[in-house]
């Protein structure tokens, strides 16, 4: 976990919150991240962009609704959406 903390060190608080939500509840859609964090959609988009730039978050296709993407931490290789993501 110490290495994860160093990657997040100079990111905005919103990006750190999104990271932690994905760590505990991921993979999730952007809509579900907005609901979980209570941040605005724009703030979540910005946070996800910062996390993707650092290489700690992957964007994948959400097969239940192709208009949405599924976000997960790069270490999560199972690729199975959680029950929360499917409910979104």
Task: Walk me through this protein's architecture.
Helix content is 53%, strand content 14%. The radius of gyration is 12 Å and the shape is globular. Helix 2 (13-25) packs across helix 4 (41-54). The protein has a three-stranded antiparallel sheet with strand order 1-3-2. It is an alpha+beta fold. The chain has a single domain, classed as Arc Repressor Mutant, subunit A (Orthogonal Bundle), CATH 1.10.10.
Q: What structural class is derived from the secondary structure elements?
A: alpha+beta
Order of helices and strands: HHEHHEEH
Helical fraction: 40-55%
What can be said about the biggest beta sheet? 3 strands, antiparallel
Instruction: Give the total of domains.
Output: 1
The total of helices stands at: 5
Order of strands in the sheet with most strands:
1-3-2
The end-to-end span amounts to: 29 Å
Q: What does the average pLDDT come to?
A: 85
CATH architect. name: Orthogonal Bundle
CATH topology name: Arc Repressor Mutant, subunit A
Number of strands: 3
Tell me the overall shape: globular
If you compute it from the alpha carbons, what radius of gyration comes out, rounded to the nearest whole angstrom?
A: 12 Å
CATH superfamily: Winged helix-like DNA-binding domain superfamily/Winged helix DNA-binding domain
Beta-strand content estimate: 5-15%
CATH class: Mainly Alpha
Stretches where pLDDT is under 50 for at least 5 consecutive residues are 77-86
């Amino acid at each position: 976990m110490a290495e994860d903390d160093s990657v997040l060190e100079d990111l905005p608080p919103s990006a750190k919150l999104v990271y932690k939500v994905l760590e505990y509840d991921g993979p999730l859609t952007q809509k579900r991240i907005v609901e979980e964090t209570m941040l605005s959609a724009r703030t979540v988009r910005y946070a996800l962009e910062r996390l993707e730039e650092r290489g700690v978050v992957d964007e994948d296709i959400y097969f239940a609704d192709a208009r949405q993407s599924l976000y997960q931490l790069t270490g999560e290789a199972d690729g199975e959406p959680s029950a929360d993501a499917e409910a979104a």
